[in-house]
Specification:
By secondary structure, this protein is α/β, with parallel strands linked by helices. The chain is 51% helix and 8% strand.
Length: 363
C-alpha cells in the first residue's frame, strides 16, 4: 500500500481556539517557524476586518503531540502562526479593528451605523458599546477556522510541510524589482536617503521596510514634486517614472531640495502623530504631504493653516462626527482606490477648501 502523509481536516471556532490557547495547548516556537512580529499592525487589523465580515482564510496546520504520561495534548503550530497571533492580539486589546471597517462596499446601509461605531476600536471597546454583545462580537467568537491536523511523528517530515507550504515564499514586490533594476541610479539613492529623514521616524512604522514599502511610499511623494502634480500610484505609473527620472541629476537635485522644504512646512503644522496613530496611515500622510506642498507653492506659512488642519482631522477621526460637506468628501475619497489620482485630488481639495484655501488659485 502506498505511503501517504496522515492528516485530518476539521474546524475550530475562535472561542474554542482561545480556550485552548489559555490552557497553553499551542506551541508557537517550533524550530522551522518564522519569528513572531513578522506581520505589521495593519495586516493584523485587516485580518480581524476579514473575520468580522466572515471572509474565509487559509487553513491552520497543527501537529498534535500527546504526552503519554499525562495524556495531555500540545499542538505544534506548523503553519498559521502569524494569523493566530493576530487573533490573540485582538482579543487581548493589543491591536484594534481597521479604521476603515465601514468604508467597504460589503457594508450595506442597514449595517453602516454599527460598522462606523466599531471601526478603529479594540475588542474591549467594542464589547463595552452596550450591555449585550453586538452581533459582531458573536460573529468573532463563532468564526470557524479550517484546521488540518498532521499526525506524522517524524518532526523532520512535518518541517517539510512548512517548507512545501512556503517554498515559493512571497514573490518580489514591484518595489523590490525596481530596487534590483535601479539600485545604482541617482533617483533611487536619493529616495533611500529621503526615507532616512528624521521626520519619518515612527511615521512609516506601519509599512514593512523589509519589503521596501517605505521606499515605494516616499517615491510616490517625491514624484509629486518631480511631476508638479498629484499622481496615480499604480505600479505601471511608478515604473514609468522610475525609468523617466533614473539619472536626471538636475531634476532630482531640485526635487530633493523641494522635498526637504515640504517636510519643513509639514513639520510646521505641528500635528500630533504620536497621539493619533491614524494620521500615519499612508492615505492621510500622502494628503498631508500634498497639502504642505501646496502651501509651499502658494507661499502660505504653515502656522496660518495649523489650527484649521488640526480641527479637520480632530473632527474627521471623532466618533461623534456627522460627515457632511468637506469632511464627507474626504471620507468618500478615502473609501476605495485610495492611491488613484482622482481620489487623491478629492482628498486634497476637501482639506484645502476646509482650511479656506482655493486649490486652483495661485495665491
Amino acid at each position: 500500500m502506498a505511503k501517504l502523509f496522515e492528516r485530518k481536516s476539521t474546524s475550530l471556532t475562535l472561542s474554542e481556539f482561545y480556550d485552548n490557547y489559555q490552557l497553553k495547548k499551542y506551541r508557537f516556537d517550533v524550530s522551522y517557524q518564522r519569528k513572531s512580529g513578522v506581520w505589521s499592525e495593519d495586516k493584523k487589523s485587516f485580518l480581524i476586518d476579514s473575520i468580522l465580515k466572515n471572509y474565509p482564510m487559509p487553513a491552520i496546520f497543527l501537529r498534535p503531540c500527546v504526552n503519554t504520561d499525562t495524556g495531555k495534548t500540545i499542538y505544534d503550530v506548523v503553519d498559521g502562526k502569524q494569523r493566530l497571533e493576530a487573533i490573540v492580539d485582538f482579543i487581548e486589546n493589543r491591536i484594534a479593528l481597521t479604521t476603515y471597517f465601514a468604508e467597504d462596499d460589503f457594508i450595506d446601509d442597514a449595517n453602516m451605523k454599527t460598522a462606523n461605531e466599531i471601526a478603529g476600536l479594540t475588542f474591549n471597546e467594542i464589547k463595552n458599546l452596550n450591555s449585550d454583545f453586538p452581533d459582531y462580537i458573536k460573529q468573532f467568537w463563532t468564526y470557524s477556522l479550517n484546521v488540518e491536523y498532521l499526525y506524522e511523528q517524524n518532526e523532520e517530515l512535518v518541517a517539510t510541510v512548512f517548507d512545501r507550504l512556503n517554498r515559493n515564499g512571497e514573490p518580489l514586490t514591484y518595489q523590490e524589482l525596481r530596487n534590483a533594476k535601479y539600485n545604482d541610479s541617482i533617483l533611487l539613492k536619493t529616495i533611500k536617503a529621503l526615507v532616512k529623514d528624521d521626520f519619518w521616524n515612527d511615521k512609516l512604522a506601519r509599512l514593512k521596510s523589509v519589503r521596501m514599502e517605505d521606499v515605494e511610499f516616499i517615491s510616490e511623494l517625491f514624484f509629486i514634486i518631480l511631476e508638479d502634480k498629484v499622481l496615480d500610484s499604480s505600479q505601471k505609473v511608478l515604473d514609468e517614472l522610475y525609468n523617466k527620472y533614473q539619472d536626471d541629476e538636475q531634476n532630482i537635485k531640485r526635487g530633493e531640495e523641494e522635498f526637504r522644504n515640504v517636510i519643513k512646512v509639514l513639520s510646521g503644522l505641528k500635528l500630533d502623530f504620536n497621539s493619533n496613530k491614524r494620521l500615519c496611515w499612508t492615505t492621510h500622510l500622502y494628503t498631508m504631504f500634498s497639502f504642505a506642498w501646496t502651501l509651499m507653492k502658494k507661499n502660505i506659512k504653515p502656522e496660518t493653516a495649523e489650527r484649521a488642519v488640526k480641527k479637520f482631522y480632530e473632527e474627521y477621526f471623532s466618533k461623534k462626527t456627522s460627515y457632511e460637506g468637506y469632511l464627507k468628501d474626504y471620507k468618500d475619497a478615502s473609501s476605495s482606490r485610495t492611491r488613484s489620482e482622482t481620489q487623491r485630488k478629492k482628498r486634497l481639495s476637501a482639506l484645502l477648501l476646509y482650511c479656506g484655501i482655493n486649490m486652483d488659485s495661485s495665491k
